[in-house]
Write a structure and sequence with these properties.
About 75% of the residues lie in helices and about 0% in strands. The two termini are about 30 Å apart. The chain is mainly alpha-helical.
Length: about 475
Amino acid sequence: MELQLVPLHWVYLAFIVFILGVLIKRRDTTLVCVVGIFALGLIATESLSGSVSGVFNSFIFATKELLGTIFIISIIVAMSRILIITGINEVMVQPLTHFLRTPALAFWGIGLIMMVTSWFFWPSPGVALIGAVLLPVAVRVGLPALGAAMAMNLFGHGIALSGDYIIQGAPKLTADAAGLPVTAVMEASVPLVIVMGVVTTVTAFWMMRRDMRTGKWRDGLIASGQNPVSTLSEERVELPMKWKRTLAVLIPLLFIVDVIAMFVLDLQGGDATALIGGTAVFILLLVTMLAHRNKGLEQTTAYLIEGFQFGFKVFGPVIPIAAFFYLGDSAFAELFGSVLPEGSHGIVNDLGVALANHVPLNQAIGSVTLTVTGAITGLDGSGFSGISLAGSIAQLFAAAIGSGAATLTALGQVAAIWVGGGTLIPWALIPAAAICGVDPFELARRNLKPVIFGLIVTTIVAMFII
């Protein structure tokens, strides 16, 4: 017996289309999502008070789901702050500078170091952690500041953030929206992240070297003769060099032990994130007490506040959007009761089944749609705010195709993060551009063709994987 769609299904679908339209216009979607939650609540409860309460309760539900992700990013940022202020980050990275002897080695070296750093510290703090140390070395061996910005950007905000295998913020959002385990999305994303990363970075490097040879290269510095690193000004707290060296060895070792423990103890998802987060807290406490001594108690709180301010600033726009898309799955019954038809598996799944019965979908159409959807959601420059939509549509299309839920979800995630996470949208490029003293619009222009080419190739690969 075919499940009949009810007004709730059509209203939810109408708001998804509306949200996509708002994103295409590069406008904020928060208001639309709140109105959508209210409309669904009004239909489900037939009560004004119930629907108004549902808006707030949906925010609470989304915050509970995202709280681990918000906390881990906040704590990592707080820890990164004290490492930068004490100069421990410089000592950690200094040995690696000996390998950056040519422009090519500098480009790939900075990129790979940035990628590994971003897995553990997230890209924005990662840029600050290593940029001020590696940039002067790169410029000295002949790599332009804009080339260094591209490397940090593509490897950090692109490869590392689109997979996000250690902190697991991105796959948590998309997996929840698609009704999948986080590990399923992470495993499905591995080949896509590799293809996207290799194609994009190789293309960007080849284009950079070609334009430098033909004289078409523009350095893109904000001001002629400006020291690129001068844009970064941080207060400093001096530590004895022997302490810096000890901590510079100890901190990476602790995170390496965490990674080993993840494999040995089979820690995944929230458990793996908690291990990294707990380690970061203890590193923050240790370094803060050593650096500030009798003021360490107060400074610990100050760094945590700064970290949480960053975390909630990043995820503030995400919560209302995620709240709406969580209603497409398990959140609806929890918030509004069992008002969907008997046999329903959630609004999104029902729409997917109905789509399969009326529209001929295949792997190619599904892959292209998810890439375009992911790219559109990234137009706001966040990368995170719209990936719940990508996960929700992936669930819809996978139900219609009959397979490929994890791959489609991962594809939408990769497209959204690469476009909006900090490689194409100028205002999202500011961390890397500021460290290198280059124009964010010029950096976005340089990244445009490699990223688009990478998305095309990755979408084709996904068609064959599904």
